[in-house]
Every structure is written in structure tokens, then in C-alpha cells.
């Protein structure tokens, strides 16, 4: 332990001494980077530029040699947080993005260039092969970005503890948690506490209070991003509905057997595949909720979210079956890259027909809002932006399918 402490001390002192040269130049070139660093705990603790960016860049012309910090860089001082992060869903965000079939059809600027999906999923741990590929393509982006939450170059803990720190990524089309939270009673009380309307001791949970309890960087949820899980429930109808959704996700084949995509689902951790893995996360959330509510109340409210998933799955499975039957009856031609005669929910806007695109919106936007709105305590999102829209989607899908069948008969 003494050797490690000595190494860190030597590492920081040398870096801090060299930082004076960096500041001299960067005060002229990028003054706001310098002013941010001067406000930071890094400066206070004598963490210099070299400690994060290496020593290869030392002149006005070799700036491309400056290293971009990775979790390994941060781990020198923040080992506990990095280890926690690597057990959670943020660490696999890049892999989850790459697992989506449509990711490979998007402009590079949106993915590796981080102007679209990559802009949020950059928080994921890319791994050595991906880093090597990015660097060979001339990308300045390397590994996972701790600064997705701890904005450079101040990297403030207080900023990362505010719910607004989550807003950039957790908003919009498929996961508007910010909108749900900020309009919920939890969010309203927090904003009122912030502006002084409510006392500072008022119970007003933030995103971090619920999902990063006690500062734990292992962010996970019981249902996972797609709200599909194993084992199957005792409710036979829900089992059948969930099988249909898993088939449309490409995880189960027409006979209900696992496909090769199961390995990708495991790697991307987008679903809970055992009762134990689900229960562990549910128990954690009940414990968190019990800080403000009774345990029975917490269990009851979370059970309502489970029930909304069950009801949403009924609508979703019915819609999938309608489109599936269009494949079987040759009304829709199966794309060559589809393994089975199922609509593919994760093809997103690249789905080949309007009815399949309607199905993708029903799944990724409206089904998400139905159960996420329930879990985040926002009735308007659960009903009008979620459940009501799913009902409308199903009506449109039925009508579109009927029109397609009529046109096919007239040929």
C-alpha cells in the first residue's frame, strides 16, 4: 500500500510541475480549458495535464499526440468508482449500440463521430480492439468517457450529482427519463428545494439517489433497457406475448429456441436472463425507496410497473403477430438479411415498410414510455405518451394490414 501511495504521489507531483508549461501556452490557445482546470479539485490536489494526457505532446505542432484519458487513466486515483462502473450498464453502452443492426447503416458522424447514438453511448467501455480501430481511423475519441457525467476540465462531483447531468442522454425518443422525472413529484420537489421554496432538508430524490445510491457507479435496473426477461412468468398469456417479442427481437427462433443473438444480449446486458439477476436489482430499488416510503408501499408501486409491462406486452404481441402474418402470407417480402419471417424491432427506421416502421415506434417509443412513465412516477407519460399511443399504433397497424391485404387481392 505504501508503494502504491508513493507512486501516485510521485505521478501527480511531476505532472503538476509540468502543468505550469501547459498553462503558459494554453492560456493563449484554449483559455477556458485552463480556467476550468484552475477551478477543479484536480488542480487543488496537484493533478496536472501530464497525469491525464501523457507527455508526448509538448509543442504547438504535436498536439495530436496528446492522449485522451480512459477509465484506466482515472483508475489510478479513482479505482473504486471505475471498478463499480465496469459492473454496470454504462460500461456496456458502446457494445449495446453496436449490437443494434441499424447502427451499421448510420452515417459515421453519428456513431464514431458521436453526433448521434455515439454521443451518449461513448460512456461505454470500448475495449482495446475498438480503441485501436478508432485511432487507426484518425479518431481522437478513445475509451469510455467519465467526462460524460464529470464534465471536463473541472470534473466536478457536485455537477455529476445533479439530475441535470443525466439529461443529455436520458431524454427524448426512446428513454425520456429526464422529462418524466422533472415532471414527477420527485423532480418537482427537487427543483423547489433547489430554488429555496422548500427547506434544504426536504426529501426530494434525484436520479443519482435512486440509481447510484451512496455514489455507487454500478448503474443497473431490474428490467433492463428493453424490459424483457427470463424466466417466463406463470401467466400463460404473458409468456406467449413475451415469446413473441423476443422472436421479433431476434433472440428466439420460430420454435421458441434461443438464437445466436442470445450471446449478444448477454454481452450487452440489455435484459435480465435469470430470476436472481432480476431480483437482486429489484431488492436494491426497494431498499432505496424505503428511505422515504414504507417497504410495502415501495413493493406495491414497483409491482404496478411490472403490471404495465404485462399489459403493454399484450398490445405489442398482437401488433407483431399482425405483421408476422403479412410475412407468412407473402404480403410483405422478407428482407434477405432477416433470418426468420418476423418483423425485426431493432431495425428501427431502416425497416422496409411503413407498417414495420409503425411497429418499431410502438415498441421503442410508446412501449418504453408506458412502463418507464409508471416507474418514474409520471402519470401523463404512462398514459398519454405511452399506453394511449400504443392503442393508436395497434389501430393503425390493423388498418394498414387490412389495406395491404385488399391491394394484394386486387393484383
As for the CATH topology of the domain at 236-410, it is Hydroxylamine Oxidoreductase, Chain A, domain 2
Query: Spans of 5+ residues with little confidence (pLDDT < 50)?
Result: 6-15, 138-142
Report the structural category: mainly alpha
- How would you spell out the order of helices and strands? HHHHHHHHHHHHHHHHHHHH
The portion of residues assigned to helices is: 55-70%
| Assigned CATH superfamily of the domain at 236-410 | Hydroxylamine Oxidoreductase, Chain A, domain 2
Signal peptide: 1-19
Pfam family, one: Multi-haem_cyto
Protein name: Multiheme c-type cytochrome
InterPro entries: Multihaem_cyt_sf (IPR036280), Multiheme_Cytochr_ET (IPR051829)
Description:
This protein is mainly α and 411 residues long. Among the domains are: 1-85, no CATH class; 236-410, Up-down Bundle (Hydroxylamine Oxidoreductase, Chain A, domain 2). Helix content is 57%, strand content 0%. It has 20 helices and no strands. It has helices at residues 2-29, 31-39, 41-44, 49-53, 71-75, 79-85, 93-99, 117-121, 128-136, 157-160, 164-167, 177-183, 185-194, 207-211, 236-248, 261-268, 275-289, 295-328, 354-375, 379-410. Helix 19 (354-375) runs antiparallel to helix 20. Keywords: Signal. Residues 1-19 form the signal peptide. This is Multiheme c-type cytochrome. Pfam families: Multi-haem_cyto.
SSE blueprint and pairings:
Elements: H1 2-29, H2 31-39, H3 41-44, H4 49-53, H5 71-75, H6 79-85, H7 93-99, H8 117-121, H9 128-136, H10 157-160, H11 164-167, H12 177-183, H13 185-194, H14 207-211, H15 236-248, H16 261-268, H17 275-289, H18 295-328, H19 354-375, H20 379-410
Amino acid at each position: 500500500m505504501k508503494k502504491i501511495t508513493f507512486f501516485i504521489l510521485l505521478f501527480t507531483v511531476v505532472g503538476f510541475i509540468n502543468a505550469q508549461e501547459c498553462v503558459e501556452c494554453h492560456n493563449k490557445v484554449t483559455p477556458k480549458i485552463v480556467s476550468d482546470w484552475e477551478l477543479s479539485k484536480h488542480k487543488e490536489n496537484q493533478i496536472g495535464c501530464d497525469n491525464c494526457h501523457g507527455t508526448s505532446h509538448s509543442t504547438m505542432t504535436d498536439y495530436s499526440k496528446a492522449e485522451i484519458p480512459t477509465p484506466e487513466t482515472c483508475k489510478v486515483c479513482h479505482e473504486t468508482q471505475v471498478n463499480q462502473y465496469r459492473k454496470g450498464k454504462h460500461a456496456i453502452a458502446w457494445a449495446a449500440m453496436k449490437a443494434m443492426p441499424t447502427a451499421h447503416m448510420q452515417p459515421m458522424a453519428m456513431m464514431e463521430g458521436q453526433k448521434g447514438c455515439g454521443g451518449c453511448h461513448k460512456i461505454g467501455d470500448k475495449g482495446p480492439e475498438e480503441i485501436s480501430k478508432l485511432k487507426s481511423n484518425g479518431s481522437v475519441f478513445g475509451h469510455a468517457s467519465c467526462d460524460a457525467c464529470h464534465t471536463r476540465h473541472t470534473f466536478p462531483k457536485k455537477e455529476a450529482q445533479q439530475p441535470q447531468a443525466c439529461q443529455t442522454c436520458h431524454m427524448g425518443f426512446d428513454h425520456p427519463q429526464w422529462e418524466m422525472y422533472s415532471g414527477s413529484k420527485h423532480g418537482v420537489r427537487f427543483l423547489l428545494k433547489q430554488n429555496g421554496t422548500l427547506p434544504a432538508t426536504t426529501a426530494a430524490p434525484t436520479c443519482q439517489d435512486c440509481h447510484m445510491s451512496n455514489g455507487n457507479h454500478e448503474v443497473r435496473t431490474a428490467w433492463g433497457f428493453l424490459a424483457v426477461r427470463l424466466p417466463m412468468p406463470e401467466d400463460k398469456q404473458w409468456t406467449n406475448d413475451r415469446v413473441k417479442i423476443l422472436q421479433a427481437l431476434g433472440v428466439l427462433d420460430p420454435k421458441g429456441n434461443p438464437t445466436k443473438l442470445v450471446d449478444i444480449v448477454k454481452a450487452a446486458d440489455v435484459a435480465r436472463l435469470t430470476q436472481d439477476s432480476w431480483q437482486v436489482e429489484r431488492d436494491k430499488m426497494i431498499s432505496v425507496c424505503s428511505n422515504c416510503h414504507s417497504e410495502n408501499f415501495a413493493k406495491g408501486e414497483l409491482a404496478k410497473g411490472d403490471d404495465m409491462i404485462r399489459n403493454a406486452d399484450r398490445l405489442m404481441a398482437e401488433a407483431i403477430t399482425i405483421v408476422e402474418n403479412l410475412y407468412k402470407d407473402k404480403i410483405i417480402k422478407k428482407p434477405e438479411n432477416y433470418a426468420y419471417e418476423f418483423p425485426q424491432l431493432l431495425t428501427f427506421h431502416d425497416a422496409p415498410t411503413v407498417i414495420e416502421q409503425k411497429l418499431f415506434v410502438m415498441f421503442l417509443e410508446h412501449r418504453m414510455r408506458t412502463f418507464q412513465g409508471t416507474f418514474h412516477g409520471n402519470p401523463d407519460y404512462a398514459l398519454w405518451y405511452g399506453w394511449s399511443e400504443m392503442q393508436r399504433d395497434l389501430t393503425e397497424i390493423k388498418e394498414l394490414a387490412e389495406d395491404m391485404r385488399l391491394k394484394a387481392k386486387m393484383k
